């Protein structure tokens, strides 16, 4: 099936920026038809699900509309663009606070007046009385509240990056770690986390550090230790899944005390993820 043929079959779209693809966003996707799609208004600064990362969190195809290229459109121009892209469009699904067009001055009333198909408006999703929004999840991550962030996401928050050469001190004097270079993703609060690490097509229990290496060289690093597993093959990329914040970053007065703490971190992480 060609791309143009498939576009002609799409009869419903959910519209939004969708940074996070969280439970609030998933509520929109549940209103799509079998031949539905996700229309991503890409602002270019998504950090929970940057770029095409959004596509892995839905079974529906995602089509991207760069904001810079459509921000000048009025309400009619935006809908004309949608219907040109999806000629069989019969249903549009949006959130309760949806705004669109130039300067975001058009709202749901305009959408309902101009679109000749069905408009479904999904109400706010809450967890424990707290509204599920991308900005809320970002704040939770910045404060290390991984459990609540994951509840709002409806999945385990993850970041992905490439492996880079480290100082080699961990393997020699502490514990072996994979040193990561992460771009675009929002990093949780600095500190130590119980995590899962995906590499080489497998997922392993791990403990991950984010922050300045106060006890070593003072440089910022993101490194993960794979628990009870020796990685003796080249690794190019790793995905880290955050399960629970363990402790704050701090400076130790010797490698001995640092290693003792790391061993304690590993034991704590095992109790959390190895169940």
Task: Indicate the CATH class of the largest domain.
Answer: Alpha Beta
Low-pLDDT segments: none
Tell me the major beta sheet.
6 strands, antiparallel, barrel
Distance between the termini: 44 Å
Rounded to an integer in angstroms, the radius of gyration calculated over CA atoms is 22 Å
Helical run tally: 9
* Count of domain modules: 2
So, the CATH homologous superfamily of the largest domain?
A: HUPs
Order of helices and strands: HEHEEHHEHEEEHHEHEEEEEH
Keywords:
275 residues; alpha/beta; Rossmann fold; Elongation Factor Tu (Ef-tu), domain 3; 2 domains; 6-stranded antiparallel β-barrel; 5-stranded parallel β-sheet; 9 helices; 13 strands; elongated
Architecture overview:
The protein is 28% helix and 29% strand. With 275 residues, it is α/β, with parallel strands linked by helices. The chain folds into two domains: 3-134, Rossmann fold (3-Layer(aba) Sandwich), CATH 3.40.50.620; 157-273, Elongation Factor Tu (Ef-tu), domain 3. The strands form three sheets. The chain has a six-stranded antiparallel β-barrel with strand order 8-9-12-11-10-13. The protein has a five-stranded parallel sheet with strand order 3-2-1-4-5. The chain is elongated and about 70 Å long.
């Amino acid at each position: 099936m060609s791309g143009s043929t498939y576009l002609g079959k799409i009869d419903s779209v959910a519209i939004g920026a969708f940074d996070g693809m969280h439970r609030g966003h998933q509520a929109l996707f549940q209103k799509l038809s079998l031949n539905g799609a996700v229309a991503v208004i890409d602002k270019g600064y998504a950090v929970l699900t940057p770029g095409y990362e959004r596509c892995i969190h839905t079974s529906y195809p995602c089509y991207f509309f760069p904001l810079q290229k459509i921000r000048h459109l009025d309400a009619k121009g935006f809908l004309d663009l949608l219907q040109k892209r999806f000629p069989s469009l019969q249903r549009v699904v949006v959130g309760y606070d949806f705004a669109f067009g130039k300067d975001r001055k058009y709202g749901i009333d305009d959408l309902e007046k101009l679109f000749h198909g069905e408009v479904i408006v999904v109400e706010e999703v809450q967890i424990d009385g707290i509204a599920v929004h991308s900005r809320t999840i970002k704040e939770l991550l910045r404060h290390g509240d991984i459990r609540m962030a994951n509840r709002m996401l409806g999945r385990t928050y993850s970041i992905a990056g490439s492996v880079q050469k480290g100082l080699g001190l961990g393997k020699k004097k502490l514990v072996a770690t994979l040193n990561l270079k992460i771009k675009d993703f929002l990093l949780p609060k600095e500190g130590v986390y119980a995590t899962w690490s995906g590499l080489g097509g497998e997922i392993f229990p791990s403990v991950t550090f984010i922050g300045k290496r106060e006890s070593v060289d003072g440089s910022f690093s993101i490194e993960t230790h794979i628990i009870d597993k020796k990685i003796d093959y080249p690794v190019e990329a790793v995905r880290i899944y955050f399960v629970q914040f363990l402790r704050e970053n701090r400076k130790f007065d010797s490698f001995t005390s640092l290693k003792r703490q790391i061993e304690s971190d590993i034991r704590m992480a095992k109790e959390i993820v190895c169940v």
